[in-house]
Design a protein that fits this description.
The protein contains ten helices and ten strands.
């Protein structure tokens, strides 16, 4: 089960005491904060999902798991967990689309969130189509095409992997084929990224590269991928990748 960000914040800050304050460096109105906060969010890095909405003066924070809901109070630009009073307070700030909650007493403790259902393309955050169906197929093709034309690096592969959270059927197949084509042109980049991946979500790109899907999505054979791994100079990465590769059972669908 993924940990919600509110739970992570609770673990980090529950034993810290801090005094109530407002922050003059973040001159935002209550109405603008309410408007920006309300909605669904992913934590940066592990994509843990949570949803925020208002009931009266309270902020309700719902974890991805239905059994965890927390109530907060909004005091100016500060979010306080209701049942802890002044024991846990976090300053709210926004940079573009990114929401940050920073501990009042220790500014080095900060957790960032991005709007759920979005990916970054060309330095801009793009809202994905709400559903995968025939009506949205053209929109999904446009998203995939735009992402495929961006410079390929680790950040771009993170966005590709995140895309799998929102697609299935023919759209997922389109993502598979596009990534398979990109892998053939940049095997080293893909393998470096797979070796370094630490996200909380399943690594769908790794599954494509190592999972024996070559008969359906165009990835090279497992033997060819193993040759790509053998060409890598970093011995630590090579050992890790061979371990991952050998652990995967071939899965082929006609």
């Amino acid at each position: 089960m993924k940990k919600s960000l509110c739970f992570i914040v609770s673990l980090l800050l529950i034993f810290m005491s801090c005094k109530e304050k407002t922050n003059p460096n973040h001159p935002v109105t209550a109405s603008s904060i309410r408007e920006k906060l309300q909605g669904s969010w992913n934590s940066v890095g592990d994509d843990a999902y949570c949803e925020l909405y208002f009931t009266g003066d309270s902020v309700i924070w719902v974890d991805a798991s239905p059994e965890r809901t927390d109530r907060y109070e909004l005091r100016g630009d500060t979010l306080c967990m209701a049942y802890l009073g002044d024991m846990m307070q976090n300053i709210i700030s926004f940079v573009g689309d990114t929401l940050a909650l920073t501990d009042v007493s220790d500014p080095t403790i900060s957790i960032k969130y991005l709007p759920f259902g979005t990916i970054a393309i060309g330095g801009k955050r793009v809202m994905l189509p709400n559903k995968v169906n025939d009506k949205s197929e053209k929109e999904w093709k446009s998203v995939i095409s735009d992402l495929s034309h961006q410079p390929l690096d680790s950040a771009a592969l993170n966005e590709w992997n995140k895309l799998y959270l929102f697609v299935d059927g023919a759209v997922a197949d389109n993502v598979d084929y596009t990534l398979a084509s990109l892998y053939k042109k940049n095997p080293g980049l893909f393998l470096h990224w797979i070796a370094a991946y630490t996200g909380a979500n399943d690594n769908k790109i790794q599954l494509g590269v190592f999972g024996g899907w070559e008969e359906t999505v165009g990835y090279p054979t497992k033997a060819a991928v193993k040759r790509d791994v053998s060409r890598m100079k970093n011995q630590t990465e090579k050992k890790l990748l061979n371990s991952k590769l050998n652990a995967v059972k071939i899965k082929c669908w006609a």
